[in-house]
């Protein structure tokens, strides 16, 4: 069985879902089900125990078969992210935390320094830490060294739908990493998810591409297929690339075997 | 007259926005709407963050010609006391509100900094997110507010037309154009996380004001890169005193402004209040606006059972639907009303002061 290992957990699905941006909770839950995702992330700032209508945590915790991974979206420093992780663990009981620290609320690019600091602290406290980072191979190794269960480099800017703009760096990260590499942010289509998986990503995390699709539930199913296809292609082994044409029947066979 | 700072007067910065605001064939309204909608959907999804204002006091020493709370108006003056604020907040919570904007007039002895700070402390106990729209303060005062749980400051320049500003602000502390202009930067330097900017459309040439507003936002985004921003588009509404604005801003022009700002500032929250009609608010939901007020009262207090409905507010509310009615209208448009989109764990002053922008001689006009 081809399982995704994260900390002491394993998952058979390699599609992780984000839960913001949906038009309503029911659509979000239907998309989660249609995606087959077993790990979903939810922002602590969308935990609302007083106003159940817009609370994302309650409904997600009631559907079976999924593990929640709270995220610290909205935090702008390591201290805020650590505080948020503690509250989220208290509320959700989940050992997972997706460390998401973006000090600039405009472009939402992750802060490498604060992310490293927060991840180091949280990993030492026993969290299963999944840091969202720019596609930086050195930072990825540093995070691995301090005990992160995976690294989550971006394919392109959050919500941009620009696909795998960072593929060169992702390639380096995948080649050097000893923890699962999960592409998070920027994907627009199931084809791009498949491409990420074919490269050797262990999983992909998708939110906007599903929530902002014409039919989010159908798109969640399509992403599920894309991820499975990409993973199978990776494990099957892609043929090597060549810079020039290689004829199926060799052009020089009429010469016989070279002496 | 003192000249405007270079970053505010540099037209090169806003050339793209200016093209979109001009109603030439290159930028027809429908195309702008389509692009604005696509950006909003991609960046913010199918959600609308909701907040509600709470007027703490209508005491004001200023003589702003357009304001229902100006000191020469005959409004009954009062301020909410701590126990009244608690009651109002609890009533707002029953509506689902977790994000509150506390408002006062300009600084007075009755409703000054200490009063505001204590009110923020009270509000922080009940609300997930607390912002203020009050009087300009010092960096230290903003730092103290941030320490009590205030995360946002809304401060409109009202108009960037210096001459009009001078005429409209007849007396009082608000007369100081430049002190007000620098207020958002002081708030951010004091550790406030988000500032809301805007102009009161109708006081001066709306297109000029929109371009200056954009340049103000861009200047702050470059100098205070950790900060969040929102931009509001309040149009003049009937209010006490019967002021008639010299410029009228129709629905088409306002819609064009909102679309153009969404395209020019794709990541910035754009706000539309209950000044606008239900039809306009419903129509703009999903097309660029990402933050709306609900069930607003523009009188002091007004949410509790003992609210005085005859009391005159700062301006007339146009969209007077209940929170439930408004949320249903959003849902009918496939948009989720989001009451909580903030986490108090992130409260407290921002740790790093904003970076100062280079002096004009050190950089090119953008």
Walk me through the structure:
The complex is a heterodimer of chains A (259) and B (366). By secondary structure, chain A is of the alpha/beta class. In chain A, 38% of the residues lie in helices and 15% in strands. Chain A is built from nine helices and ten strands. Chain A has a five-stranded parallel sheet with strand order 5-4-3-10-9. In chain A, strands 6-7-8 form a three-stranded parallel sheet. Chain A has a two-stranded antiparallel sheet with strand order 1-2. In chain A, helix 7 packs parallel to helix 9 (216-236). With 366 residues, chain B is an alpha/beta fold. Chain B has one domain (15-343): Aldolase class I (TIM Barrel, Alpha-Beta Barrel). Chain B has helices at 6-9, 15-21, 29-44, 82-94, 113-126, 139-147, 162-168, 177-181, 183-189, 206-223, 251-264, 278-284, 323-332, and strands at 47-55, 99-103, 129-133, 150-154, 194-198, 228-232, 269-272, 291-293, 336-338. An eight-stranded parallel beta barrel of chain B has the order 1-2-3-4-5-6-7-8, surrounded by six helices. In chain B, strand 2, helix 5 and strand 3 form a beta-alpha-beta unit. Chain B is globular, with a radius of gyration of 19 Å. The interface between A and B is large, with 38 and 38 residues.
């Amino acid at each position: 069985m081809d399982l995704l290992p994260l900390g002491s957990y394993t998952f058979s699905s390699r599609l992780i879902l984000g839960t913001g941006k949906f038009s309503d909770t029911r659509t979000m839950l239907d998309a989660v089900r249609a995606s087959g995702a077993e790990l979903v992330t939810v922002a602590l700032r969308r935990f609302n125990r007083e106003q159940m209508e817009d609370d994302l945590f309650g409904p997600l915790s009631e559907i079976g078969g999924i593990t929640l991974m709270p995220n610290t979206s909205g935090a702008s420093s390591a201290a805020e992210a650590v505080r948020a992780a503690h509250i989220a663990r208290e509320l959700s009981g989940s050992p997972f935390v997706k460390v998401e620290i973006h000090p600039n609320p405009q472009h939402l690019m992750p802060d490498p320094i604060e992310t490293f600091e927060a991840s180091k602290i949280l990993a030492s406290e026993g969290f299963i830490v999944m840091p969202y980072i720019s596609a930086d191979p050195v930072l990825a190794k540093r995070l691995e060294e301090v005990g992160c269960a995976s690294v989550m480099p971006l394919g392109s800017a959050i919500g941009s739908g620009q696909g795998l703009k960072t593929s060169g760096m992702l390639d380096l990260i995948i080649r050097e990493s000893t923890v699962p590499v999960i592409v998070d942010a920027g994907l627009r289509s199931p084809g791009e998810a498949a491409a990420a998986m074919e490269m050797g990503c262990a999983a992909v995390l998708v939110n906007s591409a599903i929530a902002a699709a014409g039919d989010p539930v159908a798109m969640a199913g399509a992403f599920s297929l894309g991820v499975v296809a990409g993973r199978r292609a990776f494990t099957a082994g892609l043929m090597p690339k060549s810079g020039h044409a290689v004829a199926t029947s060799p052009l020089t066979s009429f010469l016989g075997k070279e002496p | 007259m003192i000249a405007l700072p270079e970053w505010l007067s540099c037209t090169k910065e806003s050339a793209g926005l200016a093209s979109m605001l001009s109603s030439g064939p290159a930028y027809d309204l429908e195309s702008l709407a389509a692009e604005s909608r696509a950006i909003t959907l991609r960046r913010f999804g199918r959600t609308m963050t909701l907040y509600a204002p709470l007027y703490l006091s209508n005491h004001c020493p200023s003589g702003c010609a357009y304001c229902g709370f100006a000191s020469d108006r005959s409004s009954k003056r009062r301020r909410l006391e701590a126990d009244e604020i608690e009651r109002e907040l609890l009533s707002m919570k029953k509506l689902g509100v977790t994000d509150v904007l506390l408002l006062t007039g300009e600084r007075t002895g009755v409703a000054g900094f200490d009063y505001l700070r204590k009110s923020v402390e009270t509000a922080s106990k009940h609300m997930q997110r607390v912002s203020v729209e009050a009087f300009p303060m010092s960096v230290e005062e903003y730092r103290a507010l941030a320490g009590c749980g205030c995360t946002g400051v809304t401060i409109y320049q009202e108009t960037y037309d210096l001459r009009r500003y001078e005429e409209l602000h007849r007396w009082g502390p608000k007369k100081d154009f430049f002190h007000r202009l620098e207020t958002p930067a002081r708030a951010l330097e004091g550790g406030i996380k988000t500032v809301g900017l805007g102009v009161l459309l109708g006081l001066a040439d709306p297109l000029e004001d929109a371009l200056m507003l954009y340049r103000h936002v861009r200047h702050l985004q470059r100098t205070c890169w950790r900060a969040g921003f929102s931009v509001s588009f309040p149009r003049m509404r009937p209010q006490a005193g019967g002021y008639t604005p010299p410029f009228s801003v129709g629905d088409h022009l306002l819609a064009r402004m909102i679309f153009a700002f969404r395209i020019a500032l794709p990541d910035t929250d754009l706000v539309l209040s209950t000044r606008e009609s239900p039809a306009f608010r419903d129509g703009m939901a999903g097309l660029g606006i990402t933050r709306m007020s609900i069930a607003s009262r523009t009188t002091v207090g007004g949410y509790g059972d003992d609210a005085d409905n005859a009391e005159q507010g700062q301006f007339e509310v146009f969209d007077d639907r209940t929170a439930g009615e408004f949320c249903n209208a959003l849902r009918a448009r496939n948009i989720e009303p989001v009451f909580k989109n903030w986490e108090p764990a992130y409260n407290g002053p921002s740790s790093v002061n904003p970076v100062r922008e280079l002096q004009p001689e050190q950089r090119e006009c953008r």
